[in-house]
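Researcher: Go.
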Amino acid sequence: MKRFWMILMLMGACCTAGPLWAGPPPACPEPPAVDGELFSVLEKARKSMAAGRNRAALEMLSAYAARHPDRQHYHLSFCMGTACYRLRQTARAEDCFTSAAALLPCRPEVWENIGAVRAAMGNHAGAAAALSVAYRLSPPDRKGWRNLGDLYRLAGVPRAAARAYLKAFGKDPDPKALDLISDTWLAARNLEQALEAARLAADRAPTVKRWARVGDICFHLGDLQDSIVAYRKGAALDDGDGRMYLMEGMVALKLKRLTDAEACFARAMDKAAPKSKTARNAARWMQALQASRKNAASNESGVN
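Model: Structure:
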C-alpha cells in the first residue's frame, strides 16, 4: 500500500516533470491561463522539485501566494500541495489539494492526490472517498481498482471493497484473487457471494484451506450435506491437523448421525497434536456424545 501511494503521487504531481499541466478530459475546462509572474514561479518550483529542493520550491510558491492573496490558481495550489507532501507536511498538503479541487473539481489527478495524502495520514475512509471521485471522473486500470478495494478494506467497508475487487480482477480471477474476494464478501456478511468465490477457488486450485472455507460457509448457510462434502474433499488432500474430521463430526452431530460423528471425532483426535485446540475440541465433543448416549441408555433402562 505504501508503494502504491508513492507511485500515485509521482503520477499526479504535475509540477515535478514534463509540462506544467496535461490536457484535461473533454468534459473538464482548461485551467485559467497564468500570468508571466506565476508562470515563472511555477517553472522555477518545478525545476527545484525535480532537483530535490522541495523546501525552496515551497518557499517561492508560498511567497507568491502571500504577495497575491486574491489570485487563487489551480496549478499554484496543486504544486504547493505536491511540495508539502514531499516535505511530509501532510495536513497542509491536504489543504492545498483541497483548494485545487475546489477550483477545478473535474480534474481526477487532484482527487488522486487528496486520496494519497489522506492515506498517508491513516484516513483510509477519506482516501477511498477521494479516490472514488477520481475514478468516476476517469476510470482506472485494474491496478487502480485493486488499490481502491484495499483502501475500502482498511476503512472497514468490505462491501465496497468487494465490488472494487470484482472490477480489478475481471471476469476470470485467479484462485488467489478468488480467495481475497471470498474473504471480503465474508467480512461483508454476504455468504452467498463468498461461497461462490470460495467454490471457484477450491475447484481450480484445491487446498485444504480452500475446501475448509467452503465447508465453513456451507455450514453457516445451513447447507449441511454440502458442508460435509467440502470437509471430506479437504481431508482427502491432507487433514494433517484433524480439523476437517472435527468439522465433519460437528455437522454429523447436528444431523443426529451420532455414529458418524463419533467416528469423525476419533479420527480428529488421532490426527491432531495431543494438546492442540482441535484435539481438545474433539475430545470435548466425544465426551459429550458418549455422555449423551449413556444418559439415553440409563433412561431407557429406567423406563423398562
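Model: The domain at 1-18+38-138 is CATH 1.25.40.10 (Serine Threonine Protein Phosphatase 5, Tetratricopeptide repeat).
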